[in-house]
Design brief:
Layout (H helix, E strand, L loop, with lengths): L34 E3 L10 E7 L3 E4 H18 L5 E5 L5 E5 L8 H4 L9 E9 L4 E7 L4 H12 L6 E5 L10 H10 L2 E4 L2 E4 L20 E2 L2 E2 L4
Antiparallel strand pairs: 1-4, 2-7, 2-8, 3-6, 4-7, 5-6, 9-10, 11-12
Length: 229
């Protein structure tokens, strides 16, 4: 018996059904790598960020996520270089799909009981995505924007439903706007933390800070950047 088509499980309804001590025997998801490219690049290295966002509420199988990752990674490596980007898959297939296997051989009606006890056995995993949720992200330099956009466009064909490619206003994978990031960098408020950056405020113990990390005013007021006039 072959694999059931993903269109049978596309509709997202009911409660999540994750792998647990009650839900055993779940097969491993097909996608095992969620980061590709130059994933150890510093936060200052790749300022541009592009998202591939889902425009429907649906289930996305682990096979679709793996196929999209391979397609986007292959195009970026070929046209930009393997050290010119950082690709990240943003959703994980935690939801378990079930199948009630039915016999199709001769005399099957004597062996199976139809809808009696039809809960099903685990057969696959998928990710439950919402409208506007980011599926994949690519951070790169500004001169590779067209290549990254084309890579995400090719990845769209591996997913069901509709998706949109969105250019982010943030600096890389950080939650800070690009103009705010540059200002805080000049002020010395940012501490590099891999692909992210920590923002220093005016609060905290002075004994644990260097002289250059002490500030009089907060970096944000009610979530709004507070830059010097």
């Amino acid at each position: 018996m072959g694999r059931r088509p993903a269109r049978c499980y596309r509709q997202s309804k009911g409660k999540p059904y994750p792998k647990s001590r009650y839900c055993r025997g779940v097969p491993d998801p097909k996608i095992r790598i969620y980061d590709a490219g130059m994933k150890r690049a510093d936060v200052d290295f790749f300022p541009l960020l592009l998202h591939l966002a889902s425009w429907e509420k649906e289930n996305v199988t682990c096979e679709a996520l793996e196929a999209a990752r391979v397609a986007a990674n292959k195009y970026m490596v070929k046209n930009a270089g393997k050290e010119a980007f950082h690709l990240r898959v943003r959703v994980h297939p935690f939801h378990v799909l079930r199948i009630n296997k039915m016999l199709s051989c001769a005399g099957a009606d004597r062996l199976q009981t139809g809808m009696r006890g039809a809960f099903g056995k685990p057969t696959d995993t998928c990710a439950r995505v919402q409208i506007g949720q980011v599926l994949m992200s690519i951070r790169c330099k500004d001169n590779h924007e067209a290549v990254a956009e084309e890579a995400l466009r090719r990845a769209k064909f591996k997913f069901p439903g509709r998706q949109k490619i969105i250019k982010s206003n943030n600096w890389g994978f950080t939650p800070y706007k690009r103009e705010d990031f540059l200002i805080w960098r000049k002020e010395g408020r940012l501490i590099n933390d891999g692909a992210h950056a920590k923002l220093l405020t005016h609060k905290g113990a002075l004994s644990k800070r260097d002289a250059c990390e002490i500030f009089e005013r907060p970096a944000k007021i009610c979530g709004i950047p507070n830059h010097a006039q």
